[in-house]
Amino acid sequence: MEKYFSTIYVELIFAVQSKDCLIAAHWKDELYKYMCGVVRAKNQKVYAIGGAADHVHMIVSIKPNIVVADLVRVIKANTSKWINEGKFTHKKFSWQKGYLAFSSCKYSIDKDIAAIQAQEDYHKKYTFQQEYLQKTRNLNLNPYQKQIFDWLS
pTM, whole model, 2 decimals? Predict the structure, then answer.
């Protein structure tokens, strides 16, 4: 077995299909616990999880033995199935195809975790679209370069 030391922090953001607000307050904590379990089953670690009724943020540490896209695919597939089988929503639940993955560093991880833990308060003032546009601009990215989410035009 290879020996290595690696600490790669990634913030993952994915949204509910068609920007529907389907993640209800009365079961979101169960969803977050389930998501953490999916990540742990892949031998990765969740540092923070939070969001709003239409999207989820996670900070995870990624070991070099996994591809971010594969981890996101597993999280989204497992949680969609879990939500639908549990009949948590009045209609079929699915995540949008796109997602965002931003690197985070050891020096800002505490600030990034606090921001995710404050998502509920943040979204009392700002929409997910406003958050996305601000976050991508802060990182000097063109938010319209790719159609990450179906509500971008």
Answer: 0.87
